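Folding follows sequence. Below is one example:
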Amino acid sequence: MEASRQIMWNIGNHLFLEVATLLAATSLAAGLFFRVTTWRHGVAGAPRIHRVVRLLTALRGIFNQRGMIRGRIYLIMHRSLFFGMLVLAAGSALIALEMHFKMAPPRGASYLALSLILDLAGAAVLVGVALAVYKRYILKPGRLESRFSDAGVLALLGAIVGSGFLVKGARIYATSAPFAFLSPISGAVSWVVSNLVAPEGSESFHAALWYGHATLAFAFLMLFPWTNCCTCWLFRSSSAWRRPGAIGPPWVCHSLERPLPAPFRIAPGSRTLSPTPAWSAAGVKSSVPFTRGGSRSLPSP
């Protein structure tokens, strides 16, 4: 028996999928338009040279995830979430291509390898969510604000991946797939489901789980451009507006051959940070209180 999977198995009506896809695409387009409109406010001061290098710098920052990391545990967290969701999104895109463009689905060894990779990607996302919860709600670093929306995003990510494992496990149980051991997490879930659901109710159980999982996934797509879900993608996008080797804000484009002076200095005997002459010329006018025992956000030019 060749290993494979039937697309939309046990899901007869495609109306839900078509309506949800339309809503998600509309929200994504509107969110992208809003983001691009915001970015274009800064285009006037952006350099028009070295575009390819600046773009590659931005992509490198996005994919190595080091620009906003303080500590190894946070790097593991961000990379687990980023690459795990990236692989799961690629798997979903492959299914969409198979549905709409009649591409041949993977079979045999390629299907088993894809199934294992998606299992591991889902596990990576769950590890990232667990580390994020530990960071925000157990360690509680002072520099990090935790809002209700942050908890909602983490809960949504965990629910999407968890329900995905349930859907896959229920399908393995309902179809008696012989290669379940090559998808270790989904195979374990199918064993749990087999002890909770009678065989005659397995297909109904799978269908209910599928609709729940699809609802969560499309909700995530609709919310993606409007929440901090896209932080991993957008944080380093400002690199695309800088010259190679530039430091400081994009509109103050000095090169490393002429280092930018320190933006603020401490006057002798003073407890105030004052802008240096070079940064005063760039538009930094205000001084800010300075305390040696803590940190304070500095105004941007």
Notes: Residues 15-241 form a domain with the Fumarate Reductase Cytochrome B subunit fold (CATH 1.20.950.20). The radius of gyration is 24 Å. Confidence is low (pLDDT under 50) at residues 246-266, 278-301. DSSP finds nine helices and three strands in the chain.
